Amino acid sequence: MPATGHVGRYAPSPTGDLHLGNLRTALAAWLAARSSLGSLLLRMDDLDPDRVRPESAAAQMKDLRALGIDWDGAPIWQGTRFARYDAALRRLAELGRTYPCFCSRAEVRAAASAPHGPGEEGAYPGTCARLAPAEGDRRVAAGEPHCIRVRANGATRSFVDQSLGSVSAIVDDFVVRRRDGVPAYNLATVVDDAEMGVTEVVRGADLASTTPRQLWLADTLDLPAPSFLHVSLVLGADGSRLAKRHGAVTLADLAAAGLGAVDVRDLLARSLGVEAADGAPPAALVAAFDRAAIPHADLRYEAIGDTVRLTPIS
Ligand code: GLU
Fold first, then answer.
1. 149, 101 contact by CB (below 8 A)
2. How many helices (H) and strands (E) does the chain have?
3. Which residue ranges make up each domain of the chain?
4. Which pairs from 238-243 meet CB under 8 Å and 24+ separation?
5. Which of 31, 45, 62, 266 could serve as 13's disulfide partner, Cβ 3.0–4.6 Å?
6. What are the helix (H) ranges across 36-101?
7. Is 196 in the pocket of ligand 1 (CB under 6 A)?
8. Pick the CATH number of 1-71+267-314 from 3.40.50.300, 3.40.50.620, 2.170.120.30, 3.30.1330.10
Protein backbone atom coordinates (compact mmCIF):
# COMPACT_ATOMS: atom_id res chain seq x y z
CA MET A 1 0.00 0.00 0.00
CA PRO A 2 1.52 3.37 -0.91
CA ALA A 3 2.42 5.46 2.11
CA THR A 4 0.69 8.61 0.94
CA GLY A 5 -1.31 9.21 4.11
CA HIS A 6 -0.50 9.11 7.78
CA VAL A 7 2.32 7.13 9.25
CA GLY A 8 0.65 5.56 12.26
CA ARG A 9 1.87 3.10 14.84
CA TYR A 10 0.58 0.69 17.39
CA ALA A 11 2.90 0.31 20.36
CA PRO A 12 1.87 -2.37 22.83
CA SER A 13 3.90 -3.30 25.88
CA PRO A 14 4.50 -7.05 25.71
CA THR A 15 3.52 -7.62 29.32
CA GLY A 16 0.59 -9.98 28.85
CA ASP A 17 -2.23 -10.78 26.44
CA LEU A 18 -4.01 -7.90 24.71
CA HIS A 19 -7.51 -7.39 26.07
CA LEU A 20 -10.56 -5.96 24.31
CA GLY A 21 -9.58 -2.38 25.14
CA ASN A 22 -6.07 -2.84 23.71
CA LEU A 23 -7.46 -4.58 20.64
CA ARG A 24 -9.94 -1.77 20.10
CA THR A 25 -7.14 0.80 20.20
CA ALA A 26 -5.09 -1.32 17.80
CA LEU A 27 -8.03 -1.57 15.41
CA ALA A 28 -8.56 2.21 15.62
CA ALA A 29 -4.87 2.84 14.85
CA TRP A 30 -5.01 0.44 11.92
CA LEU A 31 -8.25 1.87 10.51
CA ALA A 32 -6.97 5.44 10.85
CA ALA A 33 -3.71 4.65 9.03
CA ARG A 34 -5.20 2.46 6.33
CA SER A 35 -8.17 4.73 5.63
CA SER A 36 -5.69 7.55 4.97
CA LEU A 37 -3.83 5.24 2.54
CA GLY A 38 -0.97 5.45 4.98
CA SER A 39 1.22 2.96 6.74
CA LEU A 40 1.05 1.40 10.18
CA LEU A 41 4.19 0.48 12.09
CA LEU A 42 4.29 -1.93 15.00
CA ARG A 43 6.55 -1.09 17.91
CA MET A 44 7.08 -3.33 20.90
CA ASP A 45 7.54 -1.18 24.00
CA ASP A 46 9.64 -3.79 25.75
CA LEU A 47 11.85 -1.61 27.95
CA ASP A 48 10.50 -2.47 31.38
CA PRO A 49 12.45 -5.50 32.61
CA ASP A 50 10.11 -5.92 35.58
CA ARG A 51 6.98 -6.26 33.46
CA VAL A 52 7.95 -7.64 30.05
CA ARG A 53 7.06 -11.28 29.45
CA PRO A 54 9.15 -12.70 26.61
CA GLU A 55 6.32 -14.83 25.22
CA SER A 56 3.86 -11.93 25.09
CA ALA A 57 5.06 -10.20 21.94
CA ALA A 58 4.46 -13.23 19.72
CA ALA A 59 1.04 -13.81 21.28
CA GLN A 60 0.10 -10.15 20.75
CA MET A 61 1.16 -10.24 17.10
CA LYS A 62 -0.84 -13.41 16.56
CA ASP A 63 -3.95 -11.78 18.03
CA LEU A 64 -3.52 -8.67 15.89
CA ARG A 65 -3.20 -10.81 12.77
CA ALA A 66 -6.25 -12.84 13.76
CA LEU A 67 -8.26 -9.61 13.68
CA GLY A 68 -6.88 -8.73 10.24
CA ILE A 69 -4.61 -5.99 11.57
CA ASP A 70 -1.39 -5.90 9.55
CA TRP A 71 1.62 -3.61 9.73
CA ASP A 72 4.39 -2.45 7.45
CA GLY A 73 7.92 -3.76 7.81
CA ALA A 74 9.36 -5.65 10.75
CA PRO A 75 8.29 -4.76 14.29
CA ILE A 76 10.54 -2.26 16.05
CA TRP A 77 11.83 -3.34 19.44
CA GLN A 78 12.61 -0.60 21.93
CA GLY A 79 14.98 -2.96 23.71
CA THR A 80 17.37 -2.70 20.74
CA ARG A 81 17.44 1.09 20.74
CA PHE A 82 19.19 2.11 23.96
CA ALA A 83 21.92 4.02 22.07
CA ARG A 84 19.29 6.39 20.66
CA TYR A 85 17.71 7.04 24.04
CA ASP A 86 21.16 7.64 25.56
CA ALA A 87 21.93 10.14 22.79
CA ALA A 88 18.69 12.01 23.55
CA LEU A 89 19.53 12.02 27.27
CA ARG A 90 22.96 13.46 26.51
CA ARG A 91 21.39 16.13 24.33
CA LEU A 92 18.97 17.12 27.09
CA ALA A 93 21.86 17.30 29.56
CA GLU A 94 23.89 19.52 27.18
CA LEU A 95 20.89 21.83 26.94
CA GLY A 96 20.83 22.07 30.74
CA ARG A 97 17.40 20.45 30.76
CA THR A 98 17.99 17.56 33.16
CA TYR A 99 18.98 16.97 36.76
CA PRO A 100 19.43 13.93 38.97
CA CYS A 101 16.66 13.25 41.47
CA PHE A 102 17.35 11.27 44.61
CA CYS A 103 13.79 11.26 46.00
CA SER A 104 12.25 7.92 46.83
CA ARG A 105 8.83 7.11 45.44
CA ALA A 106 7.30 7.63 48.89
CA GLU A 107 8.88 11.10 49.16
CA VAL A 108 7.52 12.09 45.74
CA ARG A 109 4.08 10.85 46.69
CA ALA A 110 4.09 12.68 50.02
CA ALA A 111 5.26 15.97 48.49
CA ALA A 112 2.82 15.77 45.60
CA SER A 113 -0.15 15.28 47.90
CA ALA A 114 0.89 17.98 50.41
CA PRO A 115 -1.69 20.81 50.77
CA HIS A 116 0.34 23.11 48.53
CA GLY A 117 1.74 20.35 46.34
CA PRO A 118 1.26 20.41 42.59
CA GLY A 119 -2.05 18.57 42.86
CA GLU A 120 -1.95 16.69 39.61
CA GLU A 121 -1.55 12.99 40.24
CA GLY A 122 2.03 11.88 39.83
CA ALA A 123 3.34 15.41 39.25
CA TYR A 124 6.79 15.94 40.72
CA PRO A 125 7.05 18.91 43.08
CA GLY A 126 10.61 19.78 42.03
CA THR A 127 12.46 18.99 45.27
CA CYS A 128 15.77 18.00 43.62
CA ALA A 129 15.52 20.79 41.02
CA ARG A 130 16.59 23.07 43.84
CA LEU A 131 19.77 21.15 44.70
CA ALA A 132 22.99 22.98 43.81
CA PRO A 133 24.48 21.31 40.70
CA ALA A 134 27.71 20.54 42.57
CA GLU A 135 25.71 18.79 45.28
CA GLY A 136 23.87 16.70 42.67
CA ASP A 137 27.17 15.79 40.98
CA ARG A 138 28.68 14.80 44.32
CA ARG A 139 25.79 12.51 45.22
CA VAL A 140 25.82 10.91 41.75
CA ALA A 141 29.59 10.35 42.03
CA ALA A 142 29.05 8.79 45.46
CA GLY A 143 26.78 6.23 43.81
CA GLU A 144 23.53 7.38 45.37
CA PRO A 145 20.55 5.86 43.50
CA HIS A 146 18.83 8.44 41.34
CA CYS A 147 16.64 8.94 38.33
CA ILE A 148 17.04 11.72 35.78
CA ARG A 149 14.31 14.32 35.43
CA VAL A 150 13.75 17.09 32.94
CA ARG A 151 13.90 20.68 34.07
CA ALA A 152 10.68 21.98 32.51
CA ASN A 153 10.48 25.19 34.57
CA GLY A 154 6.70 24.95 34.81
CA ALA A 155 6.14 25.10 31.05
CA THR A 156 2.62 24.55 29.73
CA ARG A 157 1.81 22.57 26.62
CA SER A 158 -1.49 22.41 24.77
CA PHE A 159 -2.66 20.40 21.84
CA VAL A 160 -5.86 19.77 19.98
CA ASP A 161 -6.76 16.12 20.14
CA GLN A 162 -8.98 14.82 17.36
CA SER A 163 -11.29 13.21 19.89
CA LEU A 164 -10.80 15.07 23.18
CA GLY A 165 -10.52 18.55 21.72
CA SER A 166 -8.26 21.07 23.43
CA VAL A 167 -5.99 19.66 26.12
CA SER A 168 -3.62 21.82 28.14
CA ALA A 169 -1.39 20.93 31.06
CA ILE A 170 1.56 22.14 33.07
CA VAL A 171 4.57 19.98 32.29
CA ASP A 172 6.12 18.74 35.52
CA ASP A 173 9.73 17.65 35.88
CA PHE A 174 8.99 14.13 34.67
CA VAL A 175 11.44 11.23 34.66
CA VAL A 176 13.44 10.52 31.49
CA ARG A 177 15.73 7.85 32.94
CA ARG A 178 14.54 5.59 35.70
CA ARG A 179 16.50 4.71 38.82
CA ASP A 180 17.35 1.32 37.31
CA GLY A 181 18.88 3.06 34.30
CA VAL A 182 16.02 2.18 31.94
CA PRO A 183 14.94 5.03 29.62
CA ALA A 184 11.51 6.22 30.71
CA TYR A 185 8.36 5.79 28.63
CA ASN A 186 8.00 9.45 27.58
CA LEU A 187 11.59 9.71 26.37
CA ALA A 188 11.58 6.46 24.41
CA THR A 189 8.19 7.26 22.88
CA VAL A 190 9.20 10.71 21.65
CA VAL A 191 12.55 9.55 20.27
CA ASP A 192 10.97 6.60 18.47
CA ASP A 193 7.85 8.31 17.15
CA ALA A 194 10.09 10.96 15.57
CA GLU A 195 12.62 8.53 14.16
CA MET A 196 9.90 6.24 12.80
CA GLY A 197 8.39 9.23 11.01
CA VAL A 198 5.07 8.84 12.82
CA THR A 199 2.65 11.59 11.82
CA GLU A 200 -0.41 10.49 13.77
CA VAL A 201 -0.53 8.73 17.13
CA VAL A 202 -3.73 6.84 17.87
CA ARG A 203 -3.69 5.45 21.40
CA GLY A 204 -5.79 5.03 24.52
CA ALA A 205 -7.16 8.06 26.36
CA ASP A 206 -5.34 6.89 29.50
CA LEU A 207 -2.19 8.26 27.85
CA ALA A 208 -3.60 11.71 26.98
CA SER A 209 -2.11 13.19 30.15
CA THR A 210 1.37 12.21 28.97
CA THR A 211 1.00 14.08 25.69
CA PRO A 212 1.87 17.60 26.95
CA ARG A 213 5.08 16.11 28.37
CA GLN A 214 5.86 14.39 25.10
CA LEU A 215 5.23 17.58 23.13
CA TRP A 216 7.54 19.51 25.45
CA LEU A 217 10.21 16.88 24.94
CA ALA A 218 9.83 16.89 21.16
CA ASP A 219 10.14 20.70 21.13
CA THR A 220 13.15 20.66 23.41
CA LEU A 221 14.92 18.00 21.34
CA ASP A 222 13.90 19.78 18.14
CA LEU A 223 12.01 16.73 16.92
CA PRO A 224 8.82 16.77 14.86
CA ALA A 225 5.61 16.08 16.79
CA PRO A 226 2.75 13.96 15.46
CA SER A 227 -0.95 14.73 15.74
CA PHE A 228 -2.98 12.80 18.30
CA LEU A 229 -6.20 10.87 18.49
CA HIS A 230 -6.83 9.41 21.92
CA VAL A 231 -9.58 6.82 21.83
CA SER A 232 -11.91 6.17 24.74
CA LEU A 233 -11.36 3.25 27.09
CA VAL A 234 -13.11 -0.02 27.78
CA LEU A 235 -13.95 -0.35 31.47
CA GLY A 236 -15.02 -3.34 33.52
CA ALA A 237 -18.40 -3.54 35.27
CA ASP A 238 -16.81 -1.97 38.37
CA GLY A 239 -15.76 1.12 36.40
CA SER A 240 -12.04 0.39 36.46
CA ARG A 241 -9.95 -0.12 33.35
CA LEU A 242 -10.49 -3.49 31.73
CA ALA A 243 -8.31 -6.29 33.12
CA LYS A 244 -8.14 -10.04 33.23
CA ARG A 245 -10.26 -10.21 36.39
CA HIS A 246 -13.25 -8.78 34.51
CA GLY A 247 -13.81 -12.07 32.69
CA ALA A 248 -13.42 -13.15 29.07
CA VAL A 249 -11.42 -10.18 27.79
CA THR A 250 -8.69 -11.70 25.61
CA LEU A 251 -9.17 -13.27 22.19
CA ALA A 252 -8.41 -16.69 23.65
CA ASP A 253 -10.98 -16.24 26.46
CA LEU A 254 -13.55 -14.96 24.00
CA ALA A 255 -12.93 -17.83 21.59
CA ALA A 256 -13.46 -20.27 24.45
CA ALA A 257 -16.76 -18.49 25.13
CA GLY A 258 -17.81 -19.00 21.50
CA LEU A 259 -16.86 -15.60 20.07
CA GLY A 260 -14.44 -15.95 17.15
CA ALA A 261 -11.97 -13.34 15.91
CA VAL A 262 -14.37 -12.07 13.24
CA ASP A 263 -17.14 -11.61 15.83
CA VAL A 264 -14.72 -9.68 18.01
CA ARG A 265 -13.65 -7.54 15.07
CA ASP A 266 -17.31 -6.79 14.29
CA LEU A 267 -17.93 -5.82 17.92
CA LEU A 268 -14.88 -3.58 18.08
CA ALA A 269 -15.47 -1.98 14.68
CA ARG A 270 -19.05 -1.16 15.64
CA SER A 271 -17.81 0.36 18.90
CA LEU A 272 -15.60 2.63 16.79
CA GLY A 273 -18.59 3.90 14.83
CA VAL A 274 -17.96 1.72 11.78
CA GLU A 275 -21.20 0.64 10.17
CA ALA A 276 -20.67 -2.53 8.19
CA ALA A 277 -22.34 -5.89 7.80
CA ASP A 278 -21.53 -8.71 10.22
CA GLY A 279 -18.39 -10.49 9.11
CA ALA A 280 -17.35 -7.64 6.80
CA PRO A 281 -13.75 -8.12 5.63
CA PRO A 282 -11.07 -5.69 6.86
CA ALA A 283 -11.08 -3.70 3.60
CA ALA A 284 -14.81 -3.01 3.97
CA LEU A 285 -14.22 -1.73 7.50
CA VAL A 286 -11.51 0.60 6.22
CA ALA A 287 -13.90 1.91 3.57
CA ALA A 288 -16.63 2.53 6.17
CA PHE A 289 -14.33 4.08 8.79
CA ASP A 290 -14.61 7.76 9.62
CA ARG A 291 -12.38 9.04 12.39
CA ALA A 292 -14.88 11.79 13.21
CA ALA A 293 -17.51 9.11 13.91
CA ILE A 294 -15.55 7.42 16.73
CA PRO A 295 -17.75 7.79 19.81
CA HIS A 296 -16.10 9.77 22.61
CA ALA A 297 -17.64 7.95 25.56
CA ASP A 298 -15.84 5.21 27.43
CA LEU A 299 -17.43 1.78 27.11
CA ARG A 300 -18.53 -0.71 29.69
CA TYR A 301 -17.68 -4.35 29.05
CA GLU A 302 -20.55 -6.65 29.91
CA ALA A 303 -20.71 -10.39 29.43
CA ILE A 304 -24.23 -11.72 29.61
CA GLY A 305 -24.41 -15.44 29.00
CA ASP A 306 -22.34 -15.97 25.88
CA THR A 307 -22.87 -12.44 24.53
CA VAL A 308 -20.38 -9.67 25.06
CA ARG A 309 -21.53 -6.08 24.92
CA LEU A 310 -19.63 -2.82 24.88
CA THR A 311 -22.03 -0.18 26.10
CA PRO A 312 -21.23 3.53 25.99
CA ILE A 313 -21.13 5.08 29.44
CA SER A 314 -23.11 8.30 29.39
N1 GLU B 1 3.24 0.94 25.26
C2 GLU B 1 2.22 1.80 25.77
C3 GLU B 1 1.10 0.97 26.34
O4 GLU B 1 0.91 -0.17 25.96
C5 GLU B 1 1.60 2.69 24.72
C6 GLU B 1 2.54 3.68 24.20
C7 GLU B 1 1.92 4.73 23.31
O8 GLU B 1 0.99 4.40 22.55
O9 GLU B 1 2.39 5.85 23.38
O10 GLU B 1 0.38 1.46 27.19
1. yes
2. 10, 13
3. 1-71+267-314, 82-191+215-222
4. 239/300, 241/21, 241/206, 242/19, 242/20, 242/21, 242/301, 243/19
5. 45
6. 56-66, 82-94
7. no
8. 3.40.50.620
- For residue 13, the CA-to-ligand 1 centroid distance in Å is 6
Pocket test for ligand 1, best of 207, 214, 228, 229 (most atoms within 8 A of CB): 207
Q: Would you say 12 and 44 are in contact if contact means Cβ atoms under 8 Å apart?
A: yes
Closest CA to 150 of 176, 124, 186: 176
Ligand 1 pocket, residue 189 CB under 6 Å: yes
* Ligand 1 binding pocket mutation candidate from 30, 185, 200, 213 (most atoms within 8 A of CB): 185
Q: What is the pLDDT of residues 201-241, one digit of tens each?
A: 999 999 999 999 999 999 999 999 999 999 999 999 899 99
Q: Candidates 1.10.1900.20, 3.90.800.10, 3.30.450.180, 1.10.3720.10; correct CATH number of 82-191+215-222?
A: 3.90.800.10
pTM, to two decimals = 0.94
Looking at the chain, the whole-number percentage of residues with pLDDT higher than 70 is: 96
